[in-house]
Amino acid sequence: MSKKIHTEAVDQLFEAILSLKNKEECYIFFEDVCTINELLSLSQRFEVARMLREKKTYLEISEKTGA
Prior knowledge:
Shape: globular
Order of helices and strands: HHHH
Helix content: over 70%
Oligomer: single chain
Mean pLDDT: 93
Number of helices: 4
Largest sheet: none
Structural class: mainly alpha
Distance between the termini: 24 Å
Radius of gyration: 15 Å
């Protein structure tokens, strides 16, 4: 993991995320800290990462996510 992201601000962000109790709190939190496009982009990147871990091909990932 890159040491560049190990900052107090990032620690506080992660602590805030870890304190969320349910999906509704997640929606509220992320709507407050991200634009809609940022959140959609982040969710797409997460889906791509998940599919890569499942050894999906680039074509499968592209077809499913548009990435």
